[in-house]
Amino acid sequence: MSHTIVIFGASGDLTSRKLIPALYLLHKKDRLPDNLRVVGAARTAFEHETWRTELGTSTANFVGEAFDQETWQTFAEHLFYQPVDIKQPDDYTRLKAFLETLEAQQPTTRIYYLSTSPKLYADAVQQLGQAGLADESHGDRRIVVEKPFGTDLATARQLNAALHQVFAERQVYRIDHYLGKETVQNMLVLRFANSIFEPIWNRNYIDHVQITVAEEVTVGRRGGYYDTSGVLRDMFQNHLLQLMMITAMEAPSRFDADLVRDEKVKVLRAVRSLAGADFARDTVRGQYAGYLQEAGVPPDSQTATFAAIKLHVDNWRWQGVPFYLRSGKGMSCRTTQIVIQFREPPLTLFGDKARKHMDANRLVIQVQPAEGIQLHFQTKVPDAGMRVRMTDLDFSFREAFSGAIPDAYQRLLLDAVKGDASLFARSDEVELAWSIIDPIIAAWRSPAAPELQVYEQDMWGPDGTSDWMADQGRQWFDVCPILE
Ligand code: BG6
C-alpha cells in the first residue's frame, strides 16, 4: 500500500519546524513505509524543487547534528508541492488530478494534515468532501487536525459537525502533541505494565496529585493570538487535561484506540463541575509582569498567563483526592511534571516528633525537559540517632537508554500513517474538555472571578498560589527539573 501525506498550510511554521523534520528523521531511521510521498499545499506558488530546497535549509537548522545531506536528498525525492487556496474549489480539482497522477492509480492511504489557520479548517474539510477527496474507494482517507480544536464548546461542536459531514470519526486524528511525548506514554507503561503501582494508585494511599506545566518563555511574538486565548484555552483544555486523564484513567482491557479513549473520557465525565463560589475558591489566575507591554496585547488586558485549578474526580478511585493543575508562562524554569503525593504515615516514630507534618512519599514523573522518574522516601541519617531525611531513587531515560528521545511529532505522524488513533483525541473527549474549561473562562469574566494577580517573572507564578496551597495544608513541589 502506498501512502500520501498532504499538508495544508505547507508554507507555515509548523511544517518547517516540526512536521518535515519529524518525517525526515523517521525516513533516516527507516521507519516510514517505502512508498510514501509528502505533498505540500498552500497559497504560495512554489516549484517542487524550490520547496525542497527551502525545507532542506530549515530542516538542517531544526535537526542540527542529525542532518545528513545525502539522506536528505533521498528524502527530498518524496516531497512535492501543489498550490492550493483553501477557499478555491478549482484548486481542489487540480490537487485531486495531481495526486492521482502521483499515485499512478495505485491503492493509496491518504492523510490530509490541517496545519492552516484554524479559521480555515471547516472550509478545507468541506472542499475536500466536495472534490471527492474523502472518497475511500482507492484507499483509506484520514484527516489530521492541529490544535486548537475550537475556542469553546460551541465552536468545537461546530467543527466536529463539519468533520463528520465528510469524514467518519474513525478517519479523524485530533492532535495534542503532549500525547506524543515519550514520557507521557511511559506513564501508561508505568501504570499498566507494572503491578506494584496499581494497588497504591488510589485514594487509600494518595493525598493529592499535582500536574505542572511551567514555561520560562513569555508570549513573545504570539501576543495577538495569546491574548484571545489565555492559559486556559492554550494549555489547560488540551495538554493539562490530557495529562490528568492519563494519570487518573482505569486500565483499558486492550491497548486499542477506542478502549483507551473510552477510559480517558470516563475521567472527564467524573470531573466535578465548579459552580458559584467554587470559582473564586478553587482557581487562581495570574498575569506575568510585563505582559501588558508585549506586542499585540491591549494595555488593559485581563488575560491570564498563569492558572492553578483544583479539580475533583468523583469516582471510587479518586474520591477526596484533589488534582491540582497549574501552568504559566514567564515562570522560573521549563518543567512539566506530574507529582503523585502520597499520604503521611499514620504515626511519627522517628525524627522530630514535634513536627506536625513529615515529608510523605512522592513519585515525581518528569515529562520534560529531562525525562525520568524520581521516588522520594525517608531514610535514616547515618550516625545521627534516629534522625531521618528525605532521599530519592532516580530513573533517567537518558542514562537508561541510548539514542535521542524523539520529538512528539515523530510518533504521532507515524501513528497517523499506520492508522492507530490511540494517541489522538476523540470528538467526545475534546467536547468534554471544553465543558470543563468553558465555565471557568466565563466565571473569570464575571464578578465570581478570583483576583488577577500579577507575578514577577522567574517565579512559580503569583505569591498567592503558595498561600492558597498552604491554606489547604499542602505545598507545591516547586523544584526545577529534578533530573539533569
Ligand atoms: C502549545 C501552546 O500548544 O504548547 C504554547 O500553544 C506552548 O503556548 C506549547 O508554549 C508548549 O509545548 P511544549 O511541547 O514546548 O511543552
Can you describe what's shown?
The chain is built from 14 helices and 15 strands. It is an alpha/beta fold. The protein has helices at 13-28, 48-63, 69-76, 89-103, 121-130, 153-166, 182-192, 223-248, 257-270, 278-282, 397-400, 408-418, 427-444, 463-471, and strands at 2-8, 36-42, 79-83, 108-114, 141-145, 172-174, 206-214, 283-288, 306-311, 323-328, 335-342, 362-368, 372-380, 388-396, 452-455. The strands form two sheets. The protein has a nine-stranded mixed β-sheet, sandwiched between helices. A six-stranded parallel β-sheet has the order 3-2-1-4-5-6. It has two domains: 2-146, Rossmann fold (3-Layer(aba) Sandwich), CATH 3.40.50.720; 179-470, Dihydrodipicolinate Reductase, domain 2, CATH 3.30.360. Helix 5 links the parallel strand 4 and strand 5. Bound molecules: 6-O-phosphono-beta-D-glucopyranose. The site of 6-O-phosphono-beta-D-glucopyranose has 4 residues, from loops.
Helix content: 25-40%
Which descriptor suits the 3D outline? globular
CATH class of the largest domain: Alpha Beta
CATH architect. name of the largest domain: 2-Layer Sandwich
Number of helical elements: 14
Question: In total, how many domains does the architecture comprise?
Answer: 2
Kindly report the average pLDDT value: 95
**The named CATH superfamily of the largest domain:** Dihydrodipicolinate Reductase, domain 2
Q: Which compounds are bound in this model?
A: 6-O-phosphono-beta-D-glucopyranose
> Quick one: biggest sheet?
9 strands, mixed
| Fold-level CATH name of the largest domain | Dihydrodipicolinate Reductase, domain 2
Write down the secondary-structure element order: EHEHHEHEHEHEHEHHHEEEEEEEHHHEH
